[in-house]
């Protein structure tokens, strides 16, 4: 028995790892070639369906610092449905994961599931066969007879088979760290034709919406205080602590800033160009901070770290001010037709 997504617009090439073309955010020229495991698969699914993911990045402008870390950004499900017609929500597994995934694929609906990266061959050299870690994948095609599965993960479309299939979708899953995975049903029943969606206009609408949700204080200033409070801890915990700290702080800041810049760029209005430039600067500075924090983790000083941290705070303030000013003017000028 074989099941596969049958959504209009998701062509054979898009379903084939061999013919897959990444969204530009996942190509080498991107500051962060991966965002996070949840956002990455949505970026590529929307791209494969012919929809621009950039309108969904507008939520990044309202990101917050959260006492120990920076916000782990996810797709806003309401924004997703309003822009693309895709409905998504948690899906309870009570008949068995493989059975329910196969049923939904047969109806043309992909499934987002938690998986153990130990069994995902695209993580070879990092987790595959080496380390058990939770991640998110979107299953597009599954065949229990051949034990083959095609899935979106991180920045690409991949294929696995054999024992890997058994441990991701079958009975072998009970041996991993996600025996009862969190799953989401992605309903494509109401999927809109991308030709009927003005992505730039939707981006402008969502930027105005999320600008009104943005925190009153500068979230990067709050994050820098979190980082400073962890300097001694970082020296005590070395590189193991460094990787955990950076993932929750500088990496999330860098990704969120990159996506905020991408949304403002996609809005296609000149008033937002200062926001694009400032959020791009924050994204690059977050990357720089990671190298500087690594020196602290190794017991060395970093004379540039304080200046980089202060600059990121200022650039975020500049970006937020440019966006708020544009939004307060009713969205500013529309691009020339």
From TrEMBL:
<dbReference type="InterPro" id="IPR014989">
    <property type="entry name" value="DUF1839"/>
</dbReference>
<protein>
    <recommendedName>
        <fullName>DUF1839 family protein</fullName>
    </recommendedName>
</protein>
<dbReference type="Pfam" id="PF08893">
    <property type="entry name" value="DUF1839"/>
</dbReference>
């Amino acid at each position: 028995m074989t099941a596969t997504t049958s959504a209009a617009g998701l062509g054979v090439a898009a379903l084939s790892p061999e013919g897959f073309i990444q969204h530009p955010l996942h190509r080498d020229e991107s500051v962060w070639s991966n965002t996070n495991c949840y956002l990455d698969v949505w970026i590529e699914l929307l791209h494969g369906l012919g929809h621009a993911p950039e309108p969904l990045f507008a939520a990044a402008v309202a990101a917050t610092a959260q006492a120990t870390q920076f916000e782990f950004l996810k797709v806003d499900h309401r924004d997703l449905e309003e822009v693309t017609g895709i409905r998504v929500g948690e899906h309870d597994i009570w008949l068995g994961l493989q059975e329910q995934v196969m049923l939904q694929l047969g109806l043309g609906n992909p499934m987002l599931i938690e998986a153990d990266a130990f069994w995902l061959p695209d993580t070879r050299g990092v987790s595959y066969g080496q380390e058990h870690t939770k991640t998110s994948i979107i299953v597009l095609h599954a065949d229990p007879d051949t034990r083959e599965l095609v899935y979106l993960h991180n920045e690409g479309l991949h294929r696995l088979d054999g024992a890997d299939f058994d441990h991701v979708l079958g009975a072998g899953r009970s041996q991993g760290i996600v025996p009862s995975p969190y799953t989401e049903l992605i309903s494509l029943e109401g999927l809109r034709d991308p030709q009927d969606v003005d992505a730039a206009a939707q981006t402008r609408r969502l930027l105005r919406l999320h600008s009104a949700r943005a925190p009153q204080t500068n979230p990067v200033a709050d994050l820098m205080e979190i980082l400073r409070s962890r300097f001694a801890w970082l020296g005590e915990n070395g590189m193991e602590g460094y990787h955990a700290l950076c993932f929750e702080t500088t990496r999330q800041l860098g990704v969120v800033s990159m996506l905020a810049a991408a949304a403002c760029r996609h809005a296609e209005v000149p008033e937002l160009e200062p926001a694009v430039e400032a959020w791009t600067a924050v994204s690059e500075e977050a990357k720089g901070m990671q190298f500087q924090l690594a020196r602290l983790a190794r017991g060395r000083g970093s004379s540039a770290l304080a200046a980089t941290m202060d600059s990121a705070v200022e650039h975020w303030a500049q970006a937020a001010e440019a966006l708020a000013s544009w939004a307060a003017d009713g969205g500013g000028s529309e691009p020339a037709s």
